[in-house]
Amino acid sequence: MQAKFNTIGLVVRKDMQSHLGTINQVTSVLERHAKVLVHCLDFDTPTTDFATDSMHTLVDQSDLVISLGGDGTLLTAARALVDKDTPLLGINMGRLGFLADVSIDNFETHLEEVVGGKYTVEKRFFIEGEFHSPNQPVSKNIALNDIILHSHESVSMIEYEVFSDGKLIHQQRADGVIVTTPTGSTAYALSGGGPIMHPSLETLAIVPVCPHTLSNRPIVLSAHQEIEIHLSQPGSAAQVNYDGRSTVIMENKDSIRINRYPRPLNLLHPQDYDYFEILRAKLNWSSHY
User: Quick one: which of 137, 178, 175, 129 has its CA closest to 154?
Assistant: First the structure.
């Protein structure tokens, strides 16, 4: 018997003010089954069309969280749910998403099934980046997709060293480097030539961005190995991004240590969810056969 949802939180994409009718439609369906809390991400002006709650209140009180937008909205909701067991479901407002896999066109049928207990739950792991600098206190951040280092100056390459459990993997010159989870392997890392990793795998991939050597290739490691990255060129600087969010500027004597985060995300899917079907649709596989 699946869990009953007494309170459902709805996290709404930041550019949804032009789609208030859709928000109200989704909310109305949910209110048939549970109390509904709504949080709108960075609306340009506060809305008076419906009651809204803080993200903290929504996460603290909800038995189920639903993101309404795209994969970016789901990533924001996922990071807010770190250290919570609350499941997360994504409703996609536009193009098919790898994470937000319920289309707005048939959301009502799927929502009725979900609140009726017809769903599956998939564990997706986060990674944590621990930033060390002689000039700053240690800082930590979480990512579901990837942690990316890229040149702080758009026209410059960076030179960096990558270690796994203290052993040198390589030293590279490139525009940047991506450390991706299986969840993030179909995002930016895929554009950089990285491998698609099935979500059930306990792996991380290190993917260089436009490396200076043609022989360079991505490498896949166990997610239980610590990855450490240093800048190796004096005077250079890189920007560190967590799921596309800029956080800190990394300089020559700084380092970042990346590890699998111990608490996973509970990603909820309809019962007919098929990962390979999404790959075929999103990547246009088998379209000419």
Answer: 175
* Cα–Cα dist 86/65, whole Å: 7
Q: What is the residue whose two structure tokens read 């203290």?
A: 166
Q: For residue 289, is it within any domain? A: no
Provide the domain limits for residue 151.
127-260
Q: Which amino acids are annotated catalytic?
A: 71
Q: Who's near 25: CB < 8 A, 6+ residues apart?
A: none
User: What is the Cα–Cα distance from 61 to 69, expressed in whole angstroms?
Assistant: 21
Instruction: Name the pairing type of β-strands 7-12 and 35-40.
Output: parallel
- Could you tell me how many residues make up the chain? 289
| Spatial separation of the C-alpha atoms in residues 92 and 142, rounded to whole Å | 23
Q: Do 205 and 228 touch, CB atoms closer than 8 A? A: no
Question: Cα–Cα–Cα angle for 288, 94, 289, nearest 5°?
Answer: 5
pLDDT digits (tens, 9 = 90+) for 188-245: 999 999 999 999 999 999 999 999 888 889 999 999 999 999 998 888 899 999 999 8
Round the CA-based radius of gyration of the chain to a whole number and report it. 20
**In-domain check, residue 119:** yes
CB atoms within 10 A of CB 230: 17
69-120 residue pLDDT tens: 999 999 999 999 999 999 999 999 866 679 998 988 889 999 999 988 999 9
| Burial of 213 from C-beta contacts in 10 A (0-12 / 13-18 / 19+) | exposed
Give the predicted TM-score (pTM) of the model.
0.93
* CATH code for the domain in which residue 272 is found: 3.40.50.10330
